[in-house]
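Quick one - inputs below.
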Amino acid sequence: MIKTRVNICGVEFKNPVIAASGTFGFGREYSDFFPLSKLGGISTKGLTLEKREGNKGIRIYETTGGLLNSIGLQNPGIDGFIREELPYLEKQDTVIIANVGGSTIEEYVKAVERLNETSIHMIELNISCPNVKEGGMAFGIKAETAYEVVSQVKKVCKKPLIVKLSPNAENIVHMAESCVKAGADGLSLVNTFSGMAIDIRLRKPVFDNIIAGLSGPCIKPIALRMVYEVSKAVNVPIIGIGGIMNYEDALEFIMAGAWAVQVGSGNFINPYISLEIIEGIESFMLEEGIEGLDQIRGVV
Amino acid sequence: MKGYRRTTVKSNVEIATNIYEMKISYPYAFLGCPGQFYMLKGWKAMDPFLARPISIADVEENTLSFLYEVRGKGTYLMSKLREGDSLELLGPLGKGFDTNVKGNIAIVAGGIGIAPMIYLLKSLNSRVDFYCGFRDQAYYIDKIKEYAKDIFISTESGSLGHKGFITDIFKAEKYNVVFTCGPLPMMKKVWDLCKGKKVYMSMENRMACGFGACLGCSIQTKDGMKRVCKEGPVFSGEEVFFCD
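Output:
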């Protein structure tokens, strides 16, 4: 009997495939395709204390092997989430990870305090959104600033706390160590890479913000390398993210040391991608005689 | 809803420079309402990475028609598809036109914005006036003539009909319901001419998923941010042009 189950920071996931924040809304759109209970978990669209409308101008721009986005944390705010979305998510029998963004430490702390009293299972602190001025990303570059926000949040947080790292950090291993020292119970990596595109006819950047976040299969090898390096350096569970498009990609991350993976941009081009990845992992385990994921986790 | 379905191309013809009409075999019960769209992917592997949102031009039994303009890599690759080639599509998606309208109705289309209007024209309960503007070459005229009460044509080059914009000859005062699709400045002009009337407009935007998850196509409306792919692509004029 194979077991795809995995326990991360005391939270039981029925399988290691989680929908990545910002690519899955609050699940509703995908429930038209399949029961959300099939997923290991769902990381919500990035939530901020107050409702946000997001960025103006072009928000999505395709590039070879991926896409650039500049959505800018459009979300209903913590209260809107608790009122409108959480009651629905609660019924889905899957792990709910609240992804929390912010512009100031106070904002992060207040948002987490509000979520403490709800039914969410876990918090993923987004210190790495590139699309909001002074928002998240500022905390995701320097290990010292990240330490500050994570330790302040940890003081009030009553849920298991995962910190989502930016690949744009000055040094991803130092960043990871710093977050763990500040009290992170786990880490997820990576968020999008800073990128840009130029409209050559207009001779102007495509995005109003100039810089946007790059995701998709084009980032996978770099994300994988970062997960590998971080998993060797820290002793907390890691969730691997970055351009995962099939079960082989997911297994690479697990063998590099990830306890679970998040699937992001792939959801856009195939809403069933996570289910296909779950099935692929199960068949691989059967073929290879692997009984539990711990047998292959971090084997590389 | 099913995910992407693989099906085959029946025909793919260039009906004007860079404008293609593609017919696709689609042997399923529900093909979609006027104004709805599909995400189309006519290439293998992942380059281009995203599928392309294309509105339904027409439906016949087991056949979907799409009218599209070659604008970039995706539509270029689409234009190279031949009879029997396979492609993947997801849909129908979005909220279409309200066809249950009464009164004096007009359709105003600009350029490739004509695409969703033929199916709409066929689906309305009565024959209505059709205004269509083009840059130079006109297309789909015969098909429109078959179903429209009157047809009014403009070209910027003067090659056919009125020389100039379609909004120059659009007699807004004759109608109380107007459907429009085309460049935003044209639709804005239609809205300005139609103050107080019911105006339905079909919007377009870049989208990654087409089913409401990415928020890439969100636009500002009177009632906050709305997704072109989910709450749209058809919006009422006052929802979009709420500022004035």
